[in-house]
Amino acid sequence: MHDLCVNHGHCGGRKHINDFLPETGPLAAKDFASMVLEAEEMDLRYSPREEERQIQLISGLFEQHLGARTVDVSNIKGYPKP
Questions:
Q1: How crowded is residue 64: how many other Cβ atoms within 10 Å of its Cβ?
Q2: What is the pLDDT of residues 25-47, one digit of tens each?
Q3: For the chain, what are the domain ranges?
Q4: pTM for this model (two decimals)
């Protein structure tokens, strides 16, 4: 998800998306988006509109690059840390 980091600035904070991914199983775009925001340590609970905008953006990139709303996490595991 090079695009997510380079073009949209979601590269992780002190944590990386790999710190939040389950070991196995399906992963939905919206769950991935929530994990990205958690890795970024973005506290958007006081801005529901911005949180929804970010979830939609990240979910859309997930679907665009992975070709589905849900994929097996093995398609993401090993995603390199920046």
A1: 11
A2: 999 999 999 999 988 887 777 88
A3: 2-75
A4: 0.82
